[in-house]
Amino acid sequence: MHSRHPLSRALERAFPTSTSLEFENIREVPGYGLEAELDGHRIRLGRRAWCGLAQECNSDANMEIHLSYGAVMSARFTFSDALRSDAIETITDLMHSGFKVELLSGDLSRVVEQTAKALNIESWQAECLPADKGSLKPVSYTHLRAHETGRNL
Asked: Distance of CA 149 to CAs 10, 55, 133, Å?
């Protein structure tokens, strides 16, 4: 496995490798995806625009990653996600304790908006890169780091 991203890991579990393909120059580009070469062609797995697709494919509320081979869009993989059973209670408790809860995600707007609504979070941003997520001021280490909920919910 070459990526730590949860969607890449889910894809790997769904399609265990049993191939003898020889990928070269494999690299992970944080916030964008994986890139490699196969038989002289660039392969990308990640954000739709980075893989060459400028617009969203449809309006469903699923997370997605794309696969491109050379200049050809080869596949779109969609994923659904469920909140942890204690997510709403945890967010509510944080808010009642005086924390300002914001949701920053690399996911598409429609996915993040749906999650924010389910958690009663008013302030949210979608399609964030890792650097965007790091721009929040951290909470004192003696308190919960409320901005680091991520996929742990």
From this structure: 19, 28, 11
